[in-house]
Design a protein that fits this description.
17 helices; 2 domains; Rossmann fold; 7-stranded parallel β-sheet; alpha/beta
C-alpha cells in the first residue's frame, strides 16, 4: 500500500495549480456538528466550497420551512430544524441524505444489540459509499472528511482518483478510549454502566469503529485535530508529525458574552454542561462536590439525566446540586453567563465546544487535559488530572473561596475566547487545504 505522501495528485488539481483557479473542496459529515458546518461555511466564503455531503439539511427558504411556519406548532419545529442550517452554506451546494437520520431513529428504538449493530453499520457504510459515489460524479480537487464517514469506500476512491484528502479527527485517541473502558470496568464497576448514560456501550461496535478510525488515519493525507492532547497521542501511535495539524474549535463571541453580575458574599455558582455520563467524569465531580462544597455554593448540572440513575441517585441529592436538565442551544449563553465557574472533568473527548463557549462567557474553567480545552492552567482556569477526586475538590475550593482569583481568570478567559472565533477556524481550515495542494 502506498503511503499517503506517495500518492499522485489528480490531473484536475495540477491544471488548477497551473492556471490559478481555486481548488474545489467537498466536505462530508453525516451529522450537524458545528465544526463541519463552519468548515463548509468558511470554504464557501473563500470561494472554495464545491459541496457539502451530509444528513438532513434544512433549507430555511424552502417549501417545508414555509409550510411549518403556518402550522399551529410549526414555529417550534422551525427553531429545532434551524440547527440543521447555516446561513453561510449555499443550499445549492448541499447533497443531503435524510436516510441517515431515519436509520438513527430506528437504532435508538431497537433493543436487540445485534439488530442495532446491523443498522448502525449499514448506516455508516451506506453514507461512506454515497460520498464515494458523489466524488465519482463531481470530481472535486480536495475532500475534507470528518471522522468515520469515509474510512473505506471514500478514501479508497480518493486514492484511485488522485484526490487529496483531509481528515478532521473529532474524537479522542482510540487506544486511550479502549484503555479507559478497561480501567473503568475494574476501578468503577458501579458507575461503568453509565459510561454513555442511557446509550448502551456496545464494545463490539466500538471496536469496529476503532478499526475504521485506524484505517482512515493511515490513508488521509492530512489530519486536523482540535487539541494538542490528541496530536500528542497520534504521534505516540506512529503518525508522522508533518501529517498532523492542530486546528482548535471555537465559539461565537457575540452570542456568548460575559454578563455583569454581583454575586452574594460567600456564594459561588459552578456549572457543568454536557452528557450526565461517566465518560464526562460525572461521578468524580459529584464526589469532589461532597468534599469541597460550602454553604451558599451551587453546582448546576445542565444535561439530560439517564433514565436509570443507579449509584448517581444518592449523589444527586447532595445540598447545592441543581438539576437543570437538557436545554436548547439558544438558552446556553444566558445559562453560562449566570454562573461563576465552568467545570468539565471529562475522561475522554475530542475538544468540547462548550468549553470555548464558557470561556467566551468569561468563566474560569476547571477541566482535564482530556477535555481538549484551550484553557491554560493558572491562566484561564485550572487543569486537573482526570478521574482524580482530590485534585478536583482542591480546584473547586480554590476558585470557590477566592473571588479575586475568579475575576482575574474570568478576564483572561474572555480574552482567550476572542482569539478562538469561528473566523479563525475558517482561516485555518482554508490554510490547511491550500498548503496541502501546494498553494
Amino acid at each position: 500500500m502506498l503511503a499517503p505522501t506517495q500518492r499522485p495528485l489528480g490531473s484536475r488539481l495540477a491544471i488548477n495549480q497551473g492556471d490559478g483557479e481555486r481548488p474545489r473542496v467537498c466536505v462530508a459529515c453525516s451529522d450537524a456538528r458545528p465544526p463541519a458546518y463552519e468548515a463548509a461555511a468558511g470554504l464557501a466564503a473563500a470561494g472554495l466550497l464545491d459541496s457539502l455531503v451530509t444528513a438532513y439539511y434544512h433549507d430555511s427558504e424552502g417549501r417545508l420551512d414555509t409550510l411549518l411556519r403556518h402550522l399551529p406548532r410549526g414555529a417550534a419545529w422551525v427553531r429545532r430544524l434551524a440547527r440543521r442550517n447555516h446561513p453561510g452554506i449555499p443550499a445549492t451546494a448541499v447533497a443531503a441524505r435524510a436516510s441517515v437520520d431515519l436509520c438513527l431513529a430506528v437504532e435508538n428504538r431497537l433493543r436487540s444489540g445485534r439488530l442495532r449493530r446491523f443498522v448502525a453499520r449499514t448506516r455508516t457504510r451506506r453514507f461512506d459509499r454515497a460520498v464515494a459515489g458523489h466524488l465519482n460524479r463531481t470530481r472535486p480537487d480536495v475532500v475534507f472528511l470528518f471522522s468515520d464517514v469515509g474510512s473505506v469506500a471514500t478514501l479508497d476512491r480518493c486514492r484511485g482518483l488522485g484526490i487529496p484528502s483531509i481528515l478532521s479527527v473529532v474524537h479522542g485517541d482510540i487506544d486511550e478510549e479502549r484503555a479507559l473502558i478497561d480501567r473503568l470496568r475494574v476501578e468503577s464497576p458501579a458507575f461503568f454502566p453509565l459510561y454513555l448514560g442511557d446509550g448502551q456501550l456496545d464494545e463490539r461496535e466500538l471496536d469496529w469503529l476503532h478499526d475504521r478510525r485506524r484505517r482512515e488515519a493511515h490513508l488521509a493525507d492530512r489530519l486536523l485535530v482540535p487539541s494538542d492532547h490528541i496530536a500528542r497521542r497520534l504521534r505516540e501511535r506512529g503518525i508522522a508529525a508533518e501529517r498532523i495539524r492542530v486546528v482548535p474549535y471555537a465559539a461565537d463571541p457575540e452570542r456568548f458574552r460575559p454578563r455583569p453580575r454581583q454575586p452574594e458574599s460567600g456564594s459561588c455558582v459552578f456549572v457543568f454542561a454536557g452528557g450526565i455520563t461517566q465518560r464526562k467524569g460525572i461521578s468524580y465531580l459529584l464526589e469532589a462536590w461532597s468534599v469541597a462544597r460550602r454553604e451558599g455554593w451551587r453546582l448546576r448540572l445542565v444535561g439530560e439525566l439517564p433514565r436509570r440513575l443507579g449509584p448517581l441517585a444518592g449523589w444527586l441529592k447532595q445540598p447545592g446540586v441543581e438539576l437543570v436538565g437538557r436545554v436548547g442551544h439558544a438558552q446556553m449563553p444566558d445559562l453560562l453567563a449566570d454562573a461563576d465557574v465552568f467545570v468539565f472533568p471529562s475522561l475522554f473527548e475530542g475538544s468540547a465546544v462548550v468549553t470555548y463557549e464558557a470561556l467566551a462567557c468569561g468563566l474560569p474553567l476547571i477541566v482535564t487535559s482530556e477535555a481538549g480545552s484551550v484553557a491554560r492552567d493558572g491562566v484561564e482556569g485550572l487543569v486537573v488530572p482526570a478521574a482524580n477526586v482530590e485534585a478536583l475538590a482542591v480546584a473547586l475550593r480554590r476558585l470557590g473561596d477566592d473571588p479575586a482569583l475568579r475575576q482575574k481568570l474570568a478576564r483572561a478567559a474572555r480574552r482567550r475566547a476572542e482569539s478562538f472565533t469561528w473566523s479563525r477556524y475558517h482561516s485555518e481550515v482554508v490554510a490547511s487545504i491550500m498548503s496541502l495542494v501546494g498553494r
